[in-house]
Amino acid sequence: MPLLVKNARIVTATADYTADIYCERDTITRIDRTIDQWTLPPCDILDAAGLITFPGFIDPHVHVHLPFMGTFAKDTWASASRAALLGGTTTLVEMICPARTDDPVSACDLWRSKARESICDYSFHMGVTRFDDRTPAGLKQIVDSGITSFKVFLAYKGALGIDDRELFETLRLARELGVVVAAHCENQELVALLQHQLLAVGKTGPEWHEPSRPPYVEASGVHHLCAFAEATGARIYIVHTSCKPAIEEARRAAATGVRVDVEAVIPHLVLDRSYAERPNFDGAKYVMSPPLREKHHQEFLWRSLAAGDVATVATDHAPFDFATQKSMGKDDFTKIPNGIPSIEDRVNLLYTRGVREGRIDLHTLVRVASTNPARILGLSTKGDIAVGLDADLCLYDPDHRAVISAKSHAMQTDYSAFEGFEIKGRPRHVVRRGEIVVRDAALVASPSPGRLAPRIRTG
Ligand code: URP
Ligand code: ZN
Ligand code: ZN
Question: Whole-prediction pTM value?
Fold first, then answer.
């Protein structure tokens, strides 16, 4: 049934105005100051008065099916997409993460089959964890099927990390195919050496995770990637950038013509290193890579978002239970599965800590959490509210007050990294391709499945 959204205060990356929005099938077909419902065929109606109507939010970096560090991340696509929609996110981009010995095309098929139970729309970054003579043919096939970004790890040496020859070949192929390359940037050799040094003197707790990967380790990784991007002409997207030196490296490269965009993630914006120093192994809940940083880096990240030096905010959702999974690293911080669950919390935290506390404005919120992810990753039907685009809408209630807790979240993990954080706002209704999927902050019964979102090549 068509949908009419009445009295919408529409906020996009560039505009703020009031209008009615009419959606037929998947698409926005009319936006007018007033659309009279009696001139229309029978339709659903949502009254958006008092709410802010944003484009559906896009999370450009999540992990759902993730075999990693001897275990599997906790979510299924059913659970992750439910949590995402409740948090206002209508599109997820997940990393396909094959082991070095896996065939890329089979991995792609496996990840795509898992995502069939998603109720969000979705796409993928194709993880390149090995590059040999057979790799280009497989990657071309994957790109032709609509997955128009690669992802590489300059980290996790001996597992997902690739060497310099593989990095060069991947970037060269990406340039040839016109796709963007997302990259986790750290100096993996240095990480391994620092980890060894710390463990050798009995520094085994989660509080030593950050010292094993200090800011210069990340900046070195960014510098390294940018040099390879300069050599190949590839377009790069640096994920989960956590600190000032890393952002400055990217800015320097951009100034010399490297095509680089920078992503921040919500944990780095609202949590700092002291969380990973909490006693009794509680700090393990906050172990992710790059690590949580000293507080001053947070304000630098916020300022960089406002200034446009950081283009996007993702979650890097990577959920592991505290009791049974984080505990794998009880005697050795290098064995704590890296990752923080946050797929449900990104928009509420960006709004509360960013907009309400005056660090960013509403347009920046939309730009970094919807419009720029769509533009950088070529999600050509998403990221804005306009006639002809997908009818993905988040009708946000700025007056809602709540406290985040694992007791009430929809994510699968036994803890929340944001336990006790106040939020000042939440999505009241969420529309995905014209279908109301969240009504009055609750998922509707039996929403139709999400689909692989069409993408153009942006590399
Ligand atoms: O700690 C993190 N970030 N875990 C997920 C895997 C990755 O590096 O993106
Ligand atoms: Zn990463
Ligand atoms: Zn990640």
Answer: 0.98
